[in-house]
Amino acid sequence: MRADMMAKPDEYMWSSHLCNGFGKESKLHTPHTLYLALGKDKEERPENYRALFAAHVEGILLDEIRQSVNKGLAWATNGLPGQLTGCQVTPGRRGRPIQAE
């Protein structure tokens, strides 16, 4: 494990995991609409949120996610999350944008 990585997401001081996964109050945190859709109340949402992190990711999937993060892209299979959220899921053209004439 890299020195800058934490064993659990709630160990990272700037993570919203404590707020989303355990209901910790913070003036800096506003729940996202996707988070609010995880359950009908304040008891159900954190439980469902923690379940999202129950699986250990490794191998090719982990490499794909890391490549997307390093390029500033949303990770997606078949482009579906990008279609739903409007996030870019494929790299753009390299270099400076072409100026319109």
Q: Care to describe what's here?
A:
It is a single chain. With 101 residues, this protein is an all-alpha fold. It folds into two domains: 9-51, no CATH class; 60-89, no CATH class. It is 36% helix and 0% strand. It is built from five helices and no strands. The chain has helices at residues 17-22, 33-36, 44-51, 59-70, 80-85. The longest helix is centred in the middle third of the chain and has 12 residues, at 59-70. The protein starts with 16 loop residues before the first helix and ends in a 16-residue tail after the last helix. The mean pLDDT is 80.
Helix content: 25-40%
Cα distance, first to last residue?
50 Å
Radius of gyration: 17 Å
Most strands sheet: none
Count of distinct structural domains: 2
Number of DSSP-assigned strands: 0
Q: What class do helices, strands and sheet pairing give?
A: mainly alpha
Q: Give the overall form.
A: extended
Q: What's the overall average pLDDT, rounded?
A: 80
